[in-house]
């Protein structure tokens, strides 16, 4: 199993610094355009789950669904 840093890559700060009900936004890394917004529903010992309109997904699955697998994005906590 991958550790947190490897699994979440440059977005691992969402796991380490985020708390339940924190807002997470996905921004295009180049244009800073808002792509999606969700909130941290829960964290397990190795995953963070994001609640958006109708879904609850692991952070990486949420990013892929909202921005695409190869999108150059960054996540921020608000």
Protein architecture, described:
This protein has one domain (4-77). It is 26% helix and 36% strand. The protein contains three helices and five strands. It has a five-stranded antiparallel sheet with strand order 4-3-2-1-5. A hairpin with a 4-residue loop joins β3 and β4. The protein is globular and about 35 Å long.
Which structural class fits the helix and strand makeup? alpha+beta
Q: Helix content range of the residues, please?
A: 25-40%
% residues in beta strands: 35-45%
| Number of E strands | 5
CA-based gyration radius: 11 Å
Count of distinct structural domains: 1
How many angstroms does the end-to-end distance come to? 29 Å
Number of helices: 3
Q: Overall 3D geometry? A: globular
What string gives the helices and strands in order?
A: HHEEEEHE
Physical arrangement of strands within the biggest beta sheet: 4-3-2-1-5
Are there runs of 5+ residues with pLDDT below 50, and where? none
Sheet having the most strands = 5 strands, antiparallel
Mean pLDDT: 92
Features:
78 residues; alpha+beta; 5-stranded antiparallel beta sheet; 3 helices; 36% strand; globular
